[in-house]
Amino acid sequence: MKPTKMNDRFQKFCHDLTIFFGDLLSLCNRQVVHDTFVGHWRNIRRDNYRQVPLLLAMALHLGVLLFSIAAPFIMTAKNQRIPEVYTVKLYTVQEAAPPPLTVPKIVKITTPAQKKAVAPKPVKRDAVSLSPIRQRLAKERQKKMAEKRRQDLQRREMEQLELNLLKEQAEQAAIAAEKTLAAVKKEAVAKIADLYKTADLVSRESSKAAVDVTRTGPSNGEIDQRKLEALDRYRARITEHISPHWQLPELQEWDENLRAVLVMQVKRDGTVTNSYFEKRSKNLRFNQYVKKAIDSAQPLPPFPIDFHEKSEEIAVTFSPGGLL
Q1: How many domains is the chain partitioned into structurally?
Q2: Is residue 189 in some structural domain?
Q3: Residue 206 sits in a domain of what CATH number?
Q4: At 144, which helix (H) or strand (E)?
Q5: pLDDT at residue number 191
Q6: CB within 8 Å of 210: residues ≥ 6 apart
């Protein structure tokens, strides 16, 4: 029975220790402490019987604190001065006169008067002037300030030179990009003009052969040829339509070898139902600008009259110089 009681007491003691340390850890939590104090304060404010003892305890503690502070000043005694001691002779004792004695003659030996020691006069030393030191420090300070200004001026000049150099490089790059863009535009316009000329010639030849076709009926080869010609004209028209929307930032240098091929599923009225990259470029921003150009160019021109398909896949090749 005794070991069992000891075990129960030890377990209870461990449990109490756990609760005690848990309460101590809860004191580290600012929110728990705040909630505890706020709860006690609210309970005291609601209960009038607790307010009076609390106020009395606070007043008692405050009085004890004030008394402990003021007690040393009140209880210190003033330093008492000991009065000075004077010796007073109340009477003098007269001694009896001794019998006369023969006093030998005293020969006074005169000695030369000793000279009084004369203290040496203090040597006046000139006061050390601090003006040369101040002047030297002022000159050194001025030199440091002048050197700092010179360094700041050199740094600003270098920054201005770098800015001017960057500005010149940007202007040169912009001029070169404008020249390249103008050349590409000229080349594109020439290609489009050639396509239009070819289309006119084909249309003239087709009109000349219309009589023969109506008599004999077009063959499959002639129908495919006309379809390809109409598709080529439509591709040229799409290229001309998208070119104004294809713009790249001029501040960034673009690799002329970048190419991106975008395939669009186009309906007869020019609506783009789907688009995907058949070939992506290595530059992600370049691909984003390709999608942006297609989105801003919608809707596309409708199919020509001689192109009877309901929908068609159109592939467009993008490059930094323009559409190919």
Answers
A1: 2
A2: yes
A3: 3.30.1150.10
A4: helix 131-208
A5: 74
A6: none
Q: Give the number of other Cβ atoms within 10 Å of residue 218's Cβ.
A: 16
95 domain residue, yes or no? no
Domain end among 65, 93, 120: 65
Phi (first) and psi of residue 44, to 5 degrees: -65, -40
What residues make up the domain containing 20?
2-65
**Phi and psi of 172, rounded to 5°?**
-65, -40
Is residue 119 domain-resident?
A: no
- Annotate 78-99 with b (16+ C-beta within 10 A) or e (fewer): eeeeeeeeeeeeeeeeeeeeee
The pTM score is: 0.34
Computed from CA positions of residues 266, 270, 272, 273, in that sequence, does the dihedral angle turn out positive or negative?
A: negative
Q: How far is CA 289 from CA 129, 249, 296, in A?
A: 78, 10, 10
Distance in angstroms (rounded) separating the CA atoms of residues 264 and 109:
148
Of 318, 305, 225, the residue nearest 263 (C-alpha): 318
181 and 45 belong to one structural domain: no
The predicted pLDDT at position 197 comes to 59
Q: 264 forms bridges with which residues in the sheet?
A: 275, 314
Tell me which of 17, 49, 65 is where a domain ends: 65
Do 182 and 308 have their domain in common?
yes
Tell me which residues of the chain have a pLDDT lower than 70.
Answer: 1-3, 23-27, 29, 33, 44, 47-50, 76-86, 88-130, 193-223
Which single residue is written with the structure tokens 């942006």? 292
